UniProtKB/TrEMBL annotation, chain A:
Residues that bind Mg(2+): D404, T406, D1018, D1022
The keyword Endoplasmic reticulum is assigned to this record: yes
Region described as Disordered: spans on this chain: 486-508, 1312-1342, 1365-1416
GO cellular component, one term: endoplasmic reticulum membrane
Domain P-type ATPase C-terminal: 1044-1286
Name of the protein described by the UniProt record: Phospholipid-transporting ATPase
Record's subcellular location: Endoplasmic reticulum membrane; Membrane
UniProtKB/TrEMBL annotation, chain B:
Record Pfam families: CDC50
Protein's name in the database: Cell cycle control protein
Keyword Transmembrane: yes
A biological process from GO: phospholipid translocation
Record-linked PANTHER family: CELL CYCLE CONTROL PROTEIN 50 (PTHR10926), CELL CYCLE CONTROL PROTEIN 50C (PTHR10926:SF1)
Amino acid sequence: YLKKVKKRKKKYENKRVIISNLPFGSKKQKENPNRYYDSNKIKTTKYTILTFFPKNIYEQFHRFANIYFVVIALLNFVPVVNAFQPEVSVIPICVIMAITAIKDAWEDFRRYKLDKEINHMGCYIYSREEHAYVEKCWKDVRVGDFVQLQCNETIPADILLLYSSDQNGICHLETANLDGETNLKQRHVVMGFSSQNTLFEPEFFQNTIICEMPNNDLNKFKGYMEQPNHERIGFNIESLLLRGCTIRNTEAAIGIVIYAGHETKAMLNNNGPRYKRSKIERRMNMDIFLCVGLLFMMCLVGAVGHGIWTGNFSEYPPYDVPDENGNFLSPVLAGFYMFLTMIILLQVLIPISLYVSIELVKLGQVFLIHNDIDLYDEEADLPIQCRALNITEDLGQIQYIFSDKTGTLTENKMVFRRCTVDGIEYSHQENARRLENHKDLDLDDEDFAKFQHFTLPPMNIERQATYKQTTTKPLGRCQSARAHFQGHTRNRSLGRRDSNQSQVAFSSTIEKDVTPDRRLLRRVREAALQTENLSPFIHTKTSTSLTDFFLALAICNTVLVSTATEPRQRVTVPPPIKPSGITLEKIHQIFQRLKLASLSQSFSSSQSSSDLGASFSAKNTEEHLAALDCCDNDGNCCASGRGDEFQGKGSTDIGSASLDEVFKSVTNSSLPTDFCYEAESPDEAALVYAAQAYSFTLVSRTPEQVTVRLPQGTLLTFDILYTLGFDSVRKRMSVVVRHPLTKEIVVYTKGADSVIMDLLEDSATADISAEKRMKRIKEKTQKHLDSYARDGLRTLCIAKKVLNEDDFQKWANFRREAEAAIDNRDELLMETAQHLETKLTLLGATGIEDRLQDGVPDTIAALREAGVQIWVLTGDKQETAVNIAYSCKLLNQRDTVFTINTENKTTSVFSQETCESLLNLTLEEVRKNYEVEKPQRKFFGIIPTSCSASEAPSPEFGLVIDGRTLNVIFQAGLEEQFLALTKHCRSVLCCRSTPLQKSMVVKLIRRKLKVMTLSIGDGANDVSMIQAADVGIGISGQEGMQAVMASDFAISRFKHLKKLLLVHGHWCYARLAKMVIYFFYKNVSYVNLLFWYQFFCGFSGSTMIDYWQMIFFNLFFTSMPPLLFGVLDRDVSAETLLSLPKLYKNGQNSEIYKLSTFIITMLDAFYQSLICFFVPYLTYKDSDIDMFSFGNPINTISLLTILLHQALEMKTWTLFHLVTMVGSVVFYFIFSLIYNATCVVCNPPTNPYWIMERQLSDPTFYLLCLITPVIALLPRFFIFALQGTFGASLILKAQQLDKLPKGQQDLEIQKLRSRKQTTSGAPVVSPGDTETRGLSTSDVNPLRKETPEEGYYFFNRWAEEESTATDSSAGPFSGHYPPVPSRVTNPGQNSGKLTKDNTNNFNHGSHRRSVSAVTL
Amino acid sequence: RYSSFSRRQELDTLTKVHNPLIGTKTHPSRCPDNSAFKQQKLPAWKPQLTPATVLPSFFLTGAFCLAMGVCLILSANSVREIQFDYSDKCSDCSKLRENSSNWNKECHCSVNFTLKEDILGDVFMYYGLQNFYQNHRRYVISRSDAQLLGRNVNKSYCAPFTTYHNGTPMAPCGAIANSMFNDTIDLFYNLNSSAIQVPVLKTGNSWWTDKNVKFRNPKSYNLSSAFAGTARPPYWHKPVYLLDKEDERNNGYVNEDLIIWMRVSAFATFRNLYRRVKRIRQFADGLPAGNYTFRISYNFPVTKFKGRKHVILSTVAWSGGSNPFLGIAYVVSGTAATLTGFVITAIHLKLRKKKTFFQK
């Protein structure tokens, strides 16, 4: 048997073969074929104690600077060229490397501790000796072991599921640790593996498992199990339990370990943070080369000078000391050696401590960003995560932002808004109103909780709709109660056992409670009554399609049902009632009982709540409720926890109970509790909730069956024959069910409108009237869909199809074959799915709103004001994207929007040409407009002269482009034109773009425009874009963790971007840029002192400063202030930065650190070093001063100068700053005094004994220390003072603003901003226009409020273009016409076949949207 | 690379969930502290360079510097200093010294000068050297501090002036000691055709710490035995323990001329303190006016490096020597500060006028 295995192993070299470990006890371990696989012990540490030094040093040598300094230190060991004592010269590099090593070791140690913690978590492994599952550590889990997992246990390794306590062989997983998705995933026991139902016996497991090698694809896994009889059982990812996930809803599961430790998919996916090089660092590296050049020049001067100086003597003077043998060097050779000596001497010109300082500073900056409370999301309990540690300052230089739409700009919380059934639109006005109110409600959640206590007594029935929502909110269990940040308690997780569980899994009330449309509700009830009164299945057409529509909504999904009391317990069995036989009489009975019960209990609860005061929580109330209304004598459980229903009834007479209420009470009385729906995508849940609102309640779901309760109270249980899951290629999903009563086989399909519309049944078979009707419905539905899209809703079409038994059997055979296939299973499955989903009958369509996140328009406006170009790259369809863009103020009402589309699916050379000419045409148009606009602005502008050339007019164009056109542009090399066009555009929208295109766009902009880019997204489809940009930001939202894993920073809300960029970005950039510049300055000004001395010592490489003091100068005396400065300095306060986004431009244009500032700083450094050297020189000239006595004041002076220079640069003085500043000076003096007093011969041959002491008793020393820094810093101070007087830059103004009192500050900010706005060319600012202006800016979704005329105007034309576009693209292009097959809406306006009508609008000051759409 | 940051997060999520085996771990909120430091809201002083703060600083600095500068210039002017270049006046001797084979031939020359006024106070006598690069790197290190401290030294930077070929160590070793200035200069006061030697102090010229801490003779019953087994450096005429014939305690490594020479000068042109006038008898107030003669025993060759030798008589003030530079620097920078103050005032006033005009 073993031989066989080995043979097979050879055969499948890229496969993994696993057998049970059990036959191999501890003795036969050597024969175990699993022994080669990784154990489950994880080790993420890089070093061990033994390997730390060699490995760490090796790694540090990967940094060029370290090599440089080590080479120089080694050079110092060569006697002829050494400048210092060789031993001493090693110290700086050793210290630098030691600091880095300590940092690395500390990080590694933390990793070690975490590893240990994880490795020692426990789990149950089957032991052959004890014939039972024994507890072991995670690290002892080996491939081939059998592991038993219990509910809520974390999975220790990748395990193939072999047994589940669930009778259906299903195990539920929560993968939040892995991908952040909080909805439950189903995993099932390997299909066809026989030992289900009986308890799994590991010892009888004799199968061989063959699967693929470890890889990091979380969604793909394939393999098969070979039984002893050579029968193969296939399995896939559906049977694999992944490490790090948590078992839910399943009592016990047993599996065999497939991958362990580092080979698990979770570990392979975890790459840790990435290391990018920031813009400043790139710039810095260039400047370091400049420094190298400078160093070379200085060394050359030294070498030549020394050569000449040596050559000047006819005879060797007594001070020219020969080498040990008494030989003298020739001048040329001496010069050459001197060159090397000078390199050693002046090496510090390349700032040795810069790299390690930058690293430390960035750590500090990351720490502060990480701790910003404003970037903390209380709902998710997540602060910002900084995954990349070294690009903090890039946040301050962003010029382009590429944003995803769904989940980034929008909440990705799907809310059912409207629907159309059978061509009739139900607008759900009440629902819309509810959503409008929601925001206010959400804000003072707590007040409502209190409110609820006092208003439990009956309410006005008209207000029931809104009231219901407000009162259920604190009571409902499935909501994610808003955690109050500064509140007293986080009133989340009512009645849930594991309260630490994040709440995201459950839909919030806003998604849950759909207020039904009155008209639709009536119709549904009518239909229901008809079915009730008449024979169940003879009813009118409308009612069928209505029923079907809602059935489809309820069934056609993969939603899991759980109840409120048992949040994670799946409901699989329908409740034990038979409500189908309920008569109206019975309903009345139930109703009365309920009324009594509710009255009594609501009384008591309000009583008790008042007794206990405000602290009495909603939870108690609810438990109370649950306890009271338990079961009635019929055995029907009626544990409805919804107090509002009862109150509603309490206020009304029984006799006058309307039909509405009867149904409601039936619905509620038969509900065991509230249901919670857990869906894989939020849209699905939204639809199920919508169906529930119309009393089509999804009650339970198993893989085989789905139960729905109808409005009549009937429970219908459908057998699920197949579920064809959603995929992005088909863009639809279907379920095949058998109707329980008619026994028909029905296919319910829902999917994107573009797809479904093409798959509808050809109406050839039906009679003419039906055909007409179908056509009409289709048209109407399409119209409604368009209007939904216009409102920014996500649209889905619902369709059905009835299959006859034969067709189904035929298809089912195909399907089974496809499922059994191993090789190209995916393709086959796809094919069968497509085969089924044809000839559908349209039922209706839904519009789901993807709500904008909080503060998105504000953030976008602020970022735009900051000069950041914002692009939206989305896979969504154009209409939705455009409308979201309008509602988040990405596009303005006044903007001219150009739309470039390619409908032509085949990208040919021809269309490339067309595209090119199109781009050119648009560009021309834009440019023309520019010219026209300028004089206009002058005419309208309030300030006629001041806004001249200094302010560039901001472009007022928007561009919408789709993925196909992008493809053409990339393929045809039209990037230049495209970029030229986009440069003029205020914002660009790329719709229907694939992940690859997203990243290509980002790369294009980055490469061609050489700008700093930032990508922000939340989903897996944004990963490539996030990685392509300079700064990638992931939103840790609902769509999983892939984006976060790929990102540099992970935030939880889009609005956090504002503070992250405007405040932290600005600060980090300003701090780091200033610090880097300062480091260059510091080193140059200090090293130059030595250089100047060479002119007085025959270029012999002498130093007048003791070497120890030189080393300490850089390492200790002047290192702390710049570090602190780099971490803590705030040039402008956060509030001002947020209110004046224009300040961000400072970083964008790299104003602090660019070549000119670098050169200026270098010149200043030269000047200061000249002063610091020559003032003491001239003072001590011709005196009996000795070398070190001369060097000591110079050292002191330059220390003071360098620190004072830093002080001038510092804009914020906290206690820390003061302490380090003064501390540095004090430390210097104390060190010098001690060192000079103790070291008599400790440091041969230099001997600074008693220098400092003597100098401190010399008045000249003090006089020098006073005057020299003053002279050295006078020019800089003068410039600063001048700037302060002029108030030239915005930054300075902002600094002055900071000092003003609050009210005045706001006033000034307003002034600054308004001036900016007028100058940046918003054309409508004249007082007469304020009304229109106010309107356009206050609109959240302008289209909704606009007059229909305007709205339709836009969309009529839109539709026109859409429809004609297909025609023209289909037809052959004629050579006589310009190759732009676009439809001209306003042919008289221009001949370029490009529509645009903004010029007139400007004059009228109207806020009408002007759109030009060009379609290929 | 893994960072502990992300690992922490990973573990957080791992341990956050309920694990029956390790127990429910209550996880604290990850909400950052609302402390002033972490929220970057530490109370801070934000200096601003507005005219209101800048102008006083300029004017105050200017005034202070000007006042200081005047004081310094005055005090520097009060210093009397006379300097004689005797390398030309003793041209015969310097020619003699060009040939190093004449090293043991004595050569004397004298320099006469007349003091028109008394030099009051302490008078210091310096010898000055020009173009002698005592600060040359290899020269500077060519010494052994340990040897000068009276210790036995094996390792030193003295090469090639460590030992003779026969292995006898030089005492003191190194190029500095070897090239020691060895002219003797005596000052005579010509009073009524009789020359009175001006009494001078040979000791107390060097730093106290040098004499008492840094330099020590090897321990022995007498000096010559202490230096037994060593030889004088090649350029020297006499061994180190015979440097001062008159004062036994001023011999060996603690000889003050040696100590002063060993303190290498910062520049190629420098002076070293040689003697101080002993204020007794007619020299109690300093040097009276009259004719004086320097009698110089010319030993130190300078011509081969185009050097020059000086002898300098000088007094000192509280601010140092006669160099007026520091005073000038103060005056100049004071003036500059005041001027820039005025410039800024002018600009400020002009701007303010303009601003009001602008706002109107």
